[in-house]
Design a protein that fits this description.
Length: 445
Amino acid sequence: MILLGGIFPGSGGLHAQNIESFKYSPNLSPGKNVVINENDFHGYTQYWHDTYTNWYNYGSLFKIAAPNVTKTILQTKVDLAEDMGVPGLLMQEGFMSGLLREPFRLLEDPSTTDLEEALKNENVLVTVDPSAEPGKILEEKVPEEVFSWPDRLGCHQYGATDLVRIHAFVLQSGDRKIFVISSQDQGKRTFVKDLVLTTKKITEQYDLHKGWFGVYTLHNSVTCTPGHPVEVMGLGMNEGCDWFVFDGYMDFLLKDSLVAWIKAVDLPVVTDVGATRIYGCKDYDGFQIQQMYTPENWVDYARKKGGYVFRSVYDPQSDPYHFDGYIATAGNKEQIDNQKVPFVLKTGRLEDNDLSGMVLFTPKGSMFSRDSMWKAIMDRREVGILGGGTMMGPALYRHALEMLWLDRQYLDDYFMNRISLETGMKGYDLQVSVTNTCPHPVSGT
């Protein structure tokens, strides 16, 4: 027997199915169906380090890995504090920027009475022992979880038995502020206080110029890579960069074009070009990279053209010749930090995300130019920043920049990184999008 729906009215279980009643149920939602597993590591391989990686799995067969951004940023705070010699330093964001914006009086280990008397007239930067008054009173005003995150993070530094904890935080009542450096170790309190004062002095003496050295586009090469030089500069400017040195294959041919492009729109940006090892030449007439067989060829060409020539840190063939400085890599931090030799850190190409950069320190208020850019490099008033925030360079400038990064707010405001300008062409129209991710309104011209 064959039963057809709808033949027996009132039969209950069988009904006619009209095609109009069928509906599509959307189910393409990758974000909801991704399986995320955390894979953290704390320990020693060839060195002590901590990594935080998320494994993303979709449909069992698609898998990618990416850093856990929040944990990695927090670990970098600890790593940079360790680089400054105080791995137990935890600084409240905004601590340094507050001290740089407003006048204050320094008090070292004062009594409660002396502190309260000083606060009647001005802000105070104070060093205190948290086990003694007034340090105990000040520390008790900060919730315990504010400074306990490294223990929850599991970083190896906070497993050390000899770790000395130093807290830097701000307390406020009305317009009056107390900037507190708190630690049971008097030597560490003094050390951090000196870091604060040195950083303040550096910002008063120098302007900071962020840039990309050794960025490239292969604009004049048959081989392609994403990005036009103007696009690359635009992306860099969006991060606060105001100087660029291109060195891709045949990028030295961009020298005059870069100047013309920038002049056409009156941009306050400094550019230069180079090739592998040589930079800053007055021109590159007759340059043939295929004929640069020996270190001597590179040195001779640079000297002839009034440029600069750099070498790898480890390069025995170059030892007999005088180079102007090093081409740094991630593994060269110890040499770059401690040897009094100029260096450059290459940024690379756009498809590798342009992660590395440099910050130059030039005299406050002076005009920034190609010459002052090179003078800062050759005088070692420079810091190289690798992807992930690791810094290298002379301690005076490196530690100041590390303190400012721990603060974050100062650098966000200085380089205007949270104001995003993006452009695109739609037909013959140029469309400009402006995004403000600051927690407050911003106005400007």
